[in-house]
Amino acid sequence: MLRIILASASLQRKNLFEALNLPFEVIAADIDEHAIRDPDPKKQALLIARAKAERVAAREQGIIIAADTFGVYQNKILEKPRDKEEAAAMLHALSGNTAMAYTGFCYLDPRASGGAGADREHGINETALAETEFTVRELTTDEIARYVEIFPVTAWSAAFSPAYPYGMTLIASIRGSFTGFTHGLPMELLIPLLRRSGIAVAP
User: Residues near 38 by Cβ (< 8 Å), separated by ≥ 6?
Assistant: First the structure.
């Protein structure tokens, strides 16, 4: 079987991919995400995901899977906060409000080997967007203060991660891609593409 490469250092994406019980490698793309900008946050997520995949594909052979996720509130991208103060400001803004999470996803298979719909000559080269609307419950000032002190908020877009237990408790509701939101890896896009590559996915 061709190598499967997850072009991300994200622990959340790695943990979720392990649930597929497939051999894979983690090779971070190591790109400057801040250098990739677009007025449309949806396009920006797609551009970053593709840049990650192409960076790894330029030096490695295999199926390359890349993704990039961030929150958007009032047309502003909520990237990883610079410090605890900015993290607290993001959480205060989100408290009791509804925002969007966009996950750009890119899948490159240079030789798709026979799954239904696979292009055997040209492989698979796909980019797609997973969208999730989410609402944050009302957060108290004390709760936000404790949260930013306890958790590594500067490592997460929008200062929280729903992949972790307490991060889940911040969310009142979601609509859209579940795993795109929780782990930054939309399984509803990934699994069909793995099958097109001829890879059996089963627990």
Answer: 44, 47
How crowded is residue 54: how many other Cβ atoms within 10 Å of its Cβ?
17
Distance CA 134, CA 94 (A): 10
- Distance from first CA to last CA of the chain, Å, rounded? 18
> How many Cβ atoms are within 10 Å of 33's Cβ, its own excluded?
16
Q: Is-catalytic flag, 83?
A: no
The predicted structure's pLDDT at residue 84:
97
CA dist., res. 108 & res. 121, Å (int): 13
pTM for the full predicted model: 0.89
Annotated catalytic residue, options 30, 38, 68, 109: 68
Beta bridge partners of 165: none
In the chain, which ranges are continuous DSSP H helix? Answer: 11-18, 41-57, 84-94, 141-150, 165-169, 178-183, 187-196
- pLDDT tens-digit profile of 46-55? 999 999 999 9
Give the Å distances, CA to CA, from 167 to 90, 118, 181, 185, 200. 14, 38, 12, 17, 32
- For the record, the structure tokens of 95 come out as 């408290």
